[in-house]
Amino acid sequence: RESSLKAPSLSLSRKETAFTTELRTTKRNRRAVRSMRKPTTLTASSSKKKKSDTSAFKTVASKTVSRWEVFGIDDDANETSTSETAMKSSMRIADVLVRAFPERFPTKTAAKKAIRRGEVTVNEAKADVEFEVLKEWFESNEEGEEEGTTIMIEIQARMNANFGAGDAASSSRLLSREDMPKEIREGDNATTVAYEDEECVIVRKSFGIPTLKTKMSGNAARSKNSNNDNNNNNNSSNSELEGWSLDRVLPYIAAPAVNVEGALHRPRPVHRLDSLTGGLVVCAKTRRALKVLSEAFRDRTARKRYRAVLIEYTNAHGGLGKRKINEKRGTITSNDMGPKRNQYAETEFRICDETGEDDENTVTKVLIDFHPKTGRTHQLRKHAEKELNMPILGDDRYGGKAHCDNAKNYRPKLHLFAAEITLPPEAVPWRNDVGGG
Questions:
Q1: What backbone torsions phi and psi does residue 12 show, to the nearest 5 degrees?
Q2: d(CA 398, CA 404)
Q3: Fewest Cβ atoms closer than 10 Å to its Cβ: which of 95, 236, 246, 408?
Q4: Residues 195-211 pLDDT 10s
Q5: Are 127 and 121 in contact (CB under 8 A)?
Q6: Closest CA to 204 of 419, 437, 426, 428
C-alpha cells in the first residue's frame, strides 16, 4: 500500500510525455491510453519548440502506413507470432520512418534529426522524438468501434534559406557587404565567390580569418594565439577582424538557397583551411550538398592543389642549408604527424619556378605546387621545412630561428594558397541531374 501511494507523486513529477508512457503500461488505465491515441493529443504535451516559418517548408514525401509496415503483422496474420517486433505494443516514430522511408532515412539518427527540425507530421500533427505509434491505433476498441487501419506520415523539407527574415523574397537577399571589415571586403585579400549554383558555393577565403568561429574569446583566445599558428599574428593584432570567420562572412557574399529541397539556413563550409592560409573553400547550401561534399573530402575523392613560395637558404644565413631534394617533382612521406607524432602523411610536389635573391645568391625563392594525399594538421608546412629543408615564406612557426624571426619582424602573410579543388561527379549530383557534367 505504501508503494501504491508513492507512485502517483512520481508520475506527476515527470513530463507529461513520461506520464503517458506510465499510463500505457498499466492495465487498469487502458481506456485512458486509448483516449490519447491521436497524435494531436500526444504532440500537444511535447516540449516547447521554436516557431518556424511554415511558408519556407514544402511536403516532399508522404506515405500511408499500415500496421503490417510498422509491426510486421497483417490483419489476417497469426497474432501469436513471437518475433520481437510483433511483440511490441508501440514503436518510436524514428523507427517507423526508417521502415517506411529507407531511402530518405538510412539510419535512425537521420530520422531523429528530421524530427527535431519539425519536418515530420503524423496525421497532420507535428511529431517529436518521443512520439510513439501504438499498435492499438490499428485495432478496434472495447466498444467495437472500428479504428483506422492506417496512419498518414508526411515529410516536409525547408525550401528557402532564412537569415532572419521570413518569406522567400526576403530570404533571397544578401546581407549588406558594407558591414564587413574593409580588409576582407576590398582589395587583393577580399573574400569573394569563385563559383556558385543552387546547392553549393566555392569561395576564396581571405588570409587571416579562420574557416569556422572559435569558441574561445578574450584573454583565453589571445593567450592561445601566441602559441597556436591557427591564428595569424597579423590577425591577432587587427581588431577589425576579431570575431570574423568565413562561416560568418558567407551570408554577406553567397546567395541563399531558394526553392531547393533541404535548404540550409545559411551556407556552411564542408572542410577547413587554417586561418593563415587563403584560398578555395567549398560550402554547402542544402543538406544533400552538405552530405555528399563532406563524404568526398572525408574519403579523399576530392583533390586539392596548393601553391606556395618556399625559401632556400643556400648558406648558413638561414640556419638550414641547401634543399634536401633536388628533383623537380616527387612524393614526400612521413610518419610523425598528429598529436602523438605517429600518423602517416603523404604529399606530392612539383617545383614550378625559382629565382635567386641578392648579389651573393644566399636566398632562393621557389614556387611550388603541393598535392596532399592525406590531411594532417600543418602537413604542408611541416613537409616543406623538414623534408624539403625549405620553409614557406612568412611562416613564423616552422623553419628555424632566423627564418621565424624574419617572418615575425616583417610580418608577411603566409605564402600558401589553396589554388584548385577537383570534385568527383558523385559529389555534385545536382549538376548531373541537369546535364551539367
A1: -70, -20
A2: 7
A3: 408
A4: 999 999 999 999 999 99
A5: yes
A6: 419
